[in-house]
């Protein structure tokens, strides 16, 4: 029998790997429905759905390996990062799905609450939080919606050599800001941003990307701490932003 590997586990969702099969157990059936719908619409490679029996979704493993990890330098080539950028562009140019992502009216109160939590719990100094809240303003503006992945972490993009073999974890897929996907992909890997932009092509607003880095890290850190995860990468970004 193959070893059972716990990929991620918290009270909302658990993902297990058994051999070449990933089993996703999700308490929110709507989230699984959204993931399946987004994968069906995406114009880039996604995992094959082997079977589905709520609350479990079984997916085939993708060939290759993840583009990298948040907390370590990426060993992937510059061409692989550019290929990731090109895949994101293909997604963003695709027809819009019906699902609409979070609006500014939803993001702002969550962001303010996170900032207050970080200072009250002495996770970060008020100066660091205030500085990043200012940087975040660049992202908090109206945007033209595109088809976004919505959680395009570096670990969700798989490559084999210089080619993208697929993208996993589509539960946040829907309409959103293109710059948010690019920011999420390059979080903690700012040095790879030029390669991603080269593959992506077109207009890219660096201030907006840095703004989304601030928003994502400010919002994610309280959740990570409360769920027992180490927020060191996110804290490093917040402390480094100027």
Per-chain topology:
Elements: E1 4-9, E2 13-18, E3 21-26, H1 29-41, E4 49-53, E5 56-60, E6 65-66, H2 78-92, H3 104-120, H4 126-136, E7 146-148, E8 157-160, E9 163-167, E10 174-176, H5 178-186, H6 193-200, H7 206-226, H8 232-240
Antiparallel strand pairs: 1-2, 2-3, 3-5, 4-5, 6-8, 7-10, 8-9
Helix pairs in contact: 2-6, 3-4, 3-7, 4-7, 5-7, 7-8
Key terms for this structure?
alpha+beta; 242 residues; 10 strands; three-stranded antiparallel β-sheet
Task: Please characterize this protein's 3D structure.
The protein has helices at 29-41, 78-92, 104-120, 126-136, 178-186, 193-200, 206-226, 232-240, and strands at 4-9, 13-18, 21-26, 49-53, 56-60, 65-66, 146-148, 157-160, 163-167, 174-176. 43% of the residues lie in helices and 19% in strands. A hairpin with a 3-residue loop joins strand 1 (4-9) and strand 2 (13-18). By secondary structure, the chain is α+β, with helices and mostly antiparallel strands. The strands form 3 sheets. The protein has a 5-stranded antiparallel β-sheet. The protein has one domain (62-240): Alpha-Beta Complex (Aminoglycoside 3'-phosphotransferase, Chain: A, domain 2).
């Amino acid at each position: 029998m193959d070893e059972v590997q716990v990929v991620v586990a918290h009270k909302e969702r658990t993902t297990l790997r058994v051999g070449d099969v990933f089993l996703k157990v999700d308490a929110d059936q709507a989230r699984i429905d959204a993931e399946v719908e987004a994968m069906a619409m995406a114009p880039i490679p996604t995992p094959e759905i082997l079977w589905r029996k709520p609350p479990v979704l079984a997916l085939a493993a993708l060939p290759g390996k993840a583009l990298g990890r948040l907390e370590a330098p990426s060993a992937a080539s510059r061409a692989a990062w550019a290929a990731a950028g090109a895949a994101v562009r293909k997604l963003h140019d695709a027809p819009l799905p019906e699902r609409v992502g979070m609006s500014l009216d939803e993001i702002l109160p969550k962001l303010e609450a996170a900032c207050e939590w970080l200072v009250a719990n002495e996770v970060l100094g008020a100066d660091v939080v205030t500085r990043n809240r200012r940087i975040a303003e660049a992202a908090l503006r109206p945007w033209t919606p595109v088809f976004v992945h919505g959680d395009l972490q570096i670990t969700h993009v798989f490559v084999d050599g210089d080619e993208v073999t697929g993208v996993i974890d589509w539960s946040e897929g829907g309409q959103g800001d293109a710059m948010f996907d690019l920011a999420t992909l390059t979080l903690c890997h700012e040095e790879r941003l030029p390669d991603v932009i080269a593959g992506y092509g077109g207009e890219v607003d660096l201030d907006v990307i840095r703004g989304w880095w601030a928003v994502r890290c400010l919002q994610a850190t309280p959740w990570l701490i409360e769920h027992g995860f180490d927020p060191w990468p996110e804290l490093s970004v917040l402390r480094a932003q100027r």
